[in-house]
Amino acid sequence: MNQTITPVKTASLGVLLIALWLIVQGVFNALGLIFLIWDLPNSFEGVTLTVTTVCLLVLWKTLPLTIGIVLFQQHRSIVRWFYDCVLPENEEPDGWHNSASPAILLVGLLGLFLISGALNAFCNEHLVMMRILEIDNKMPIPPHRYSDANPSWYTPIVYPLFLGLVFVIGAGRIGICIGKAIDKSLESPAEKEEDELS
Predict the structure, then answer these.
(1) Is CB count within 10 Å lower at the N or C end of the chain?
(2) How confident is the model over 133-180, as pLDDT tens digits?
(3) Residue (of 173, 4, 7, 178) closest to 92 by Cα position
(4) Comparing 88 with 114, which gets the higher pLDDT?
């Protein structure tokens, strides 16, 4: 166990943990789906479940499981995506002395965490289930769910998803900017004068 823990290895572990969290969420959603399908005819009168509706409900509820498995399999590529702006080909940061490395790690993992939270909120959104059921059943959806005056249903989905995508896509650049700001704030007055002169 003499292997050095580098930022890239830590990022890989973080991505794996988020992938496992999504897989667990997907498994629980799949188990909950059994009770949901069983209870639907009692909850909504006149609801008929066709093969199409059941397939869409299964796809909707198991989305975290699918994405978690993909993240688990592709975690090295995702970490390489975080660090592609910083690293030459086939090279890892050899330590934590470069402020940009841990900043990229935190920004990238925060982005993935926000996306996974948005995904979980999407898979628990009642409105999505109603829209799926509408495909084969003429069921009115309460008008207040669509009202512009009450947009709170998409708040836990759209905002974290947007921020998460920004953080994941821009992890390298955002991390470099944060690292430079940290390095500047830690510079001694003499070093600042040298930087200004150069």
Answers:
(1) N
(2) 777 776 554 443 433 444 566 788 889 999 999 999 988 888 888 888
(3) 7
(4) 114
Apex CA 4: angle with CA 96 and CA 170, to 5°? 45
Alpha helices in the chain (DSSP H): 7-43, 51-61, 63-73, 75-83, 100-123, 126-134, 155-169, 171-186, 189-197
- Spatial distance between the Cα atoms of 148 and 96, rounded to a whole number of angstroms: 48
Query: Is the whole-model pTM more than 0.90?
Result: no
Give the tokens for residue 150. 């009450």
> How many C-beta atoms lie closer than 10 Å to residue 152's C-beta?
6
Question: Which of 46-55, 61-70, 83-92 is predicted least confidently?
Answer: 83-92
How many Å apart are CA 109 and CA 117, to the nearest integer?
Answer: 12
Would the CA dihedral through 119, 120, 121, 122 be positive or negative?
Answer: positive
44 to each of 40, 51, 94, 98, how far by Cα in Å?
6, 18, 59, 58
Question: Which amino acid, residue 132?
Answer: I
